[in-house]
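BUG: 3D viewer hangs when loading the predicted structure for this chain

Environment: internal workstation, default settings.
Expected: structure renders.
Actual: progress bar stalls at 90%.

Input used:
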Amino acid sequence: MQFVAAGFDLARFWRLTPKSYALMMRGAVAAERARRLTMAEAARAGTRLDADDFETWVAAVNGRDRRMPPNVLRGVLNRAARSMETISMGDALKRMH
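Structure tokens produced before the viewer hung:
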């Protein structure tokens, strides 16, 4: 049963109205989506950041502040820029068309 798989008590299920059930399940779906996005974001950050920057990122996430600290963001952007191909504006425009 999806209700129990979402972490809810089966005994509570029988006392719910259809509207309450729908609201609870929407909330459970949203929470699961957020959990998966956080896991994907952590995996991505872990591959892009050095150990100190990753620990700073984890601390920021655990503190509910989802903004990346400026020093961490700077490192991520620098590493991303180094891995990107450098091309002229003309070449970029040709690739778009």
